[in-house]
Amino acid sequence: MSQISGLDGNPALQLAPDYLLADIATARAKCEHVYRAKRNPEFYLMFGEVSYRVTALESINDTVFTLRQTHEPRPASELRIGDKVLGALLQENLRGLVLVCGERAVGKTSTAASVFVERIKVYGGLGLAVEDPPEMKLEGPQGKGYVLQVWADPQKGGYPEQMRRGMRSGAESIFLGEIRDGITASEACRAGIDGHLVMSTGHGGSPVEGLERIHALASTHERNAAQLLADGVALVVWQTLDTVVIEGLHKKRPQTRMLRVKGNSSVQSKIREGKFAALQQELDQQSNAAAWTTAAKK
């Protein structure tokens, strides 16, 4: 049995119509081949000229493949993350690790990728996008610059190996779909120290929690992880989705908070000393002083 959503604009799952069954059978055969070869439950698949992110699930009866079509990032001007936060993310001289964190399914990757592409369009240069597997269409000419997109295949070294290659490629800007391990966390901070802009995502209930998680990961690989974070991180943006009522309809709108790290000696000192709890006060002071807390425009 095959089901499909989005057919004729209908978001609900429904049985696939007969005219699609042959294509679905071909796509399933390709999925089975890749899954058997890699034994990785998540992978990237091209079918015709359309790319998909595939997830394999072992149900009690069969192997089920879910395919999600990749898409292009929305223009940065449509992110609704607030003018001050967006302005900070688009500063021409921004360098270091920029972490967009939050809970699951709040648009972290969409925000990070949109800002990454916008910077390439405006400022030019070579950008490298690394994901496992790719979720959006990023590769190709982007305004004044160009983006190369690679899959951080775990069987080929994953994020750490692609990160190292990116450092040697001449890419000024790097987009990492997610920081998942200590090596990648350390290398991302080092790239920031060396003058690269690295944009990535992570989990956390606040900017401070997001930073703590990166520190915990880096600590598994780096003895002096706190020093590395203090010197390598530029900004931490936390994003969530709030429900607002617009013309009688309930809609989701992003809300953000941002912690400036680079250039703020007080914040950097607390990170070096491992005093992450004290960063909440710094966050509140930054929010009050510069109105970094932003609610989306309705």
UniProtKB/TrEMBL annotation:
Record's GO cellular component terms: plasma membrane
A GO molecular function annotation here is: ATP binding
UniProt entry keywords in alphabetical sequence: ATP-binding, Nucleotide-binding
Q: Does the keyword ATP-binding apply?
A: yes
Annotated ranges, domain Bacterial type II secretion system protein E: 93-270
Q: Which family does it belong to?
A: Belongs to the GSP E family.
The protein in question is named Flp pilus assembly complex ATPase component TadA
This protein's species is Paraburkholderia sacchari
From the UniProt record, report the name of the gene that encodes this protein: tadA
